[in-house]
């Protein structure tokens, strides 16, 4: 009889202690599911939307950036990788810039010419600005909505 009573006591203690152990591991699955990989905000006084990603989201997207450089001709023209040039349905050109790590916003650009994997711009972000070369279409999806994470 004594052995049966101690088994019952162990079972009750396990039921009481198990929830404490699970929550000590860093939260519940429900809390992890509600963490947003990206948030958007309207830039005050403009029609520009700023997209902020978590570091994990940027990694999953394979996000890459490159710096805008001068074309070296002494003009105001700049150069970006052609991978950073995006076209809208009306033929407009733009790129995503990153003024701070993990923060992105779309900027209109004017392309003078494409030479292989390089685009020369007559209008765009200044030299030294980071532009997105991989992951921009996913950022566009976040900006405009309609893309759900699996």
Task: Tell me about this structure.
- The chain is of the alpha+beta class.
- It folds into two domains: 2-31, no CATH class; 36-144, conserved putative lor/sdh protein from methanococcus maripaludis s2 fold (Beta Barrel), CATH 2.40.420.20.
- Helices cover 29% and strands 35% of the residues.
- The chain contains four helices and eleven strands; from the N terminus they run H-H-E-E-H-E-E-E-E-E-E-E-E-E-H.
- Strands 1, 2, 3, 6, 7, 8 and 11 form a seven-stranded antiparallel β-sheet that branches.
- A hairpin with a 7-residue loop joins strand 4 and strand 5.
- It starts with a helix and ends in a 6-residue tail after the last helix.
Helix and strand layout, with pairings?
Elements (H helix, E strand, L loop, with lengths): L1 H23 L4 H5 L4 E5 L6 E5 L1 H7 L2 E4 L1 E2 L7 E4 L4 E2 L5 E8 L2 E6 L1 E6 L2 E6 L6 E5 L1 H9 L6
Antiparallel strand pairs: 1-2, 2-8, 3-11, 4-5, 5-10, 6-7, 7-8, 7-11, 9-10
